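FAQ

Q: What does a record look like?
A: Structure on top, sequence underneath. For example:
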């Protein structure tokens, strides 16, 4: 109500203010930033020497990958290395798959498996910025079935968990969940397999309900176990965002960045661009690893279900290098990305777990972190992740360096991690 002593001058001012507010309300809202043009390549070449690389030593990497192809160890691969936002080396090696003649290019589509995790984690953080998701809230706030978790005991029994699983535990793999295939013969892994861990006929939300019934390996927040955590995070994101995971990822990350070849499932029309492995998983629990990514199932795996190209994934990497922004399109605030790069682990958490990234490393909200570059080749602060078929990326802020590597070779995944670090940092003449 207007104050009765406002007087004529006050009445006139209030009338003008009301008119201005009415005009503002009737005016169209300012348009959201236009998405990055997918037709303009993310790859901007520069002379390697001008970016601080020794061209002769970069050739060692090229010759090395060509040798893997010539020896029949892989069908093909693609390596991209850059600094200062520009690319020093981009080259495809071999062909897209056994029996194929199509060469690997920056448009070849690879299953990126766990390189899905950073994309889904960034999607989650856009919801955090909007106040729709709370990192420190119990997962049960979004998925009620996570209120009554149990922890596996050495004698095969279970007991109720004494600590709640938090959203940030999912993003940092400190949730107590596991991947059964890492140690498939252990009793807990066998219990997970019997409980339906490997099903793909469920939606993300249904799969999260299934996982909630399985025993935790440890109390939440006490140990680092690589796990289905990001799959459960995908269900949390769906609840918090009010839409299916693929829609949220497309609206909040891949769409604005112009990543038109990055998706949970690819259309049949793109099949000619699919990369294929030399075998189908090598037997054991990962037999059938290389699923047909043009034949959708109900399951949208936030932890490993996407495929992409080098050119597309570079857009995501350059957004990370740009502190949340790429070509004028901001995905995250700089301070939000900085929060993702804070270590969520302690020496006790790292020692208690399994499959931790390595000595001198930490883990944040979706990325591994280099904490000690006296024992790791990338500089301190480097954040990265990889996929089970050998794909990998990293962003090294200390040296202003980035890389994207694509391949489909589970058997050589760890070997390529070592090789890429040696090739790239040996070639870095001007750190």
């Amino acid at each position: 109500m207007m104050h009765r002593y406002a007087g004529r001058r006050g009445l006139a001012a209030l009338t003008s203010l009301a008119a201005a507010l009415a005009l503002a309300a009737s005016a169209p809202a300012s348009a959201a930033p236009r998405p990055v043009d997918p037709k303009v390549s993310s790859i901007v070449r520069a002379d390697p020497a001008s970016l601080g690389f020794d061209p002769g030593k970069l050739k060692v990497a090229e010759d090395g990958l060509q040798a893997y192809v010539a020896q029949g160890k892989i069908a093909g691969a693609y390596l991209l290395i850059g600094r200062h936002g520009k690319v020093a080396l981009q080259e495809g090696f071999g062909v897209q798959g056994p029996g194929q003649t199509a060469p690997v290019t920056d448009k070849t589509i690879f299953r990126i498996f766990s390189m899905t995790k950073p994309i889904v984690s960034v999607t989650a953080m856009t919801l955090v910025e909007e106040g729709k998701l709370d990192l420190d809230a119990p997962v049960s706030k979004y998925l009620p079935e996570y209120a009554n978790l149990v922890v596996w005991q050495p004698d095969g029994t279970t007991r109720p968990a004494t600590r709640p699983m938090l959203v940030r535990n999912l993003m940092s793999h400190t949730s107590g969940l596991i991947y059964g295939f890492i140690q498939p013969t252990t009793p807990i892994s066998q219990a997970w397999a019997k409980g339906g861990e490997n099903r793909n006929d469920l939606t993300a939300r249904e799969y999260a309900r299934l996982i909630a019934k399985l025993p935790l390996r440890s109390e939440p927040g006490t140990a680092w176990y690589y796990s289905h955590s990001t799959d459960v995070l995908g269900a949390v994101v769906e609840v918090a965002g009010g839409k299916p995971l693929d829609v949220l990822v497309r609206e909040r990350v891949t769409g604005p960045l112009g990543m038109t070849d990055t998706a949970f499932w690819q259309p049949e029309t793109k099949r000619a661009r699919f990369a294929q492995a030399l075998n189908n998983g090598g037997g054991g629990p990962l037999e059938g690893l290389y699923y047909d990514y043009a034949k959708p199932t109900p399951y949208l795996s936030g932890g490993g279900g996407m495929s992409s190209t080098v050119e597309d994934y570079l857009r995501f990497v350059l957004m990370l290098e740009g502190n949340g922004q790429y070509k004028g399109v901001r995905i995250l605030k700089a301070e939000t990305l900085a929060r993702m790069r804070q270590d969520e682990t302690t020496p006790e958490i790292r020692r208690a777990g399994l499959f931790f990234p390595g000595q001198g490393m930490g883990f944040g909200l979706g990325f591994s972190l280099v904490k000690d570059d006296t024992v790791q080749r990338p500089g301190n602060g480097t954040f990265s992740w990889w996929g089970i078929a050998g794909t990998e990326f990293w962003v090294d802020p200390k040296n202003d360096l980035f890389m994207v590597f694509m391949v489909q070779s589970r058997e050589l995944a760890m070997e390529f991690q070592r090789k890429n670090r040696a090739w790239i940092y040996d070639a870095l003449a001007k750190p």
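Q: Is there anything notable about this one?
A: The first strand starts at residue 76 and ends at 83.
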